[in-house]
Fold this sequence. Notes:
Number of domains: 3
Largest sheet: 3 strands, antiparallel
Structural class: mainly alpha
Helix content: over 70%
Order of helices and strands: HEEHEHHHHHHHHHHHHHHHH
CATH topology of the largest domain: Receptor-associated Protein
Number of helices: 18
Distance between the termini: 116 Å
Mean pLDDT: 80
CATH class of the largest domain: Mainly Alpha
Strand content: 5-15%
CATH superfamily of the largest domain: Type II secretion system (T2SS), domain F
CATH architecture of the largest domain: Up-down Bundle
Amino acid sequence: MNEPIMGFQQANMSKEPDLRFDAQVRLRDRPGEAKTLTVEAPTKDAAIQKLLGQGYVVIKVWEQGKKKSGFKNIFSKPSLPADSDKKSGGALFSFSNHVSPREAIFFAVQLSTLLKAGIPLLRALEIIERGITNLFFRKVLQSMCKKITGGGTFSNALRSFPHVFPWIWVNLVGVGETTGKLPECLEEIAHYQESAARIKSKVVTAFFYPGVLTVAVICALTFLLLFIVPKFSEIFASQKLELPVLTQIVVAISNVLRMHFLWAAGCVAAAVIAFVWSGKMLSVQMFYSRIALGAPIFGTILMQVAVIRFTRSLGTLLRAGVQILQALEIAGRLVENPFIEGGIKRVAQQVRNGQRLGAQLEARKIFPVFMTQLITVGEESGQLDRFLDLLANYYEDQVDTFLARLTTLLEPFLLVFMGGVIGTIVIAMFMPIIELSTRAGTN
């Protein structure tokens, strides 16, 4: 029933005369070389699809006989209505030059979807930029479009904004441009970023309440020792009471803190500055990271998080087509532990000489044996990336369980400990008062 209509539409389309378009394009396997081609097609969209089908990355297209400056090409930014900001309720306002991890992840997912649909890179960036409410992020995308229009690659445009796009973006996008699998690489980026943000959020959430509780109690202790205890001490001195040992200790601590507060604060500040300054040296970083990994409770968390970062990033890089040696170098940096990173570098040297990854990791004793054994099995079965994902998911579950148990035990322990400290101060202050009231009653 619809065949006559379809035939009529096809007949009309076939009657449309072909136009000549000039196009600036790049080859997928040569992202740094741009050139201009001429293509015949009935419409501009048809010309774009024709170039995409020939394997080109389309930068811009314009009809012959029309000036580029006077013709609105597919990549030009549309002008917004004068009242667009008013209609959005000021949504374009950004309080700081910041792009959240969630916004970056959503950007990668959107761009991957548009590229898979056959939309050119610059057109896809323009579509995404129009839907972003973060004004700073919009300016970043506009600047990236200008760099790409000028002949630069997408990876180089990302490299210009290291505070917005982590350097793993640059590496994976570079691989995607070289292999012609940019949408797939963007999917891997989104998957990795989401996993990294999830594990970071879990760790921060687990220690947030204990941290707030610790700060609150320290502030309360400081207030008692600086302002409350001296008042009681003056009363005791005026009554010439013989203070109990516990009260003498609390009063002595209060006096030291009051008389030498600035000196103590300066010492603490100097210690913090020295710790931060010395932490910039590689040898000291190695020492600190090794000590942290050997800590009784927190060392276990640090090791499990390091395993998750290493396995997740290495699996992501291998699926994206990164060579094993380059993937090991990048994954080692993403662990963010100098001691483990140094061990991974030594493992990479052995892998370069033909040794197996799992065997070398087990020989170095960097990671748990369970992890190294599964990596060995993955190598032998030719499914290393799959086993790396299994390990990342397993240790992520382990971290969840460990943090839940630690939080359950840590919160009551902190409450009892800090309540005991404050209670001791209160008891120390009331013991002489009880003695004074007893003496007044006997008189």
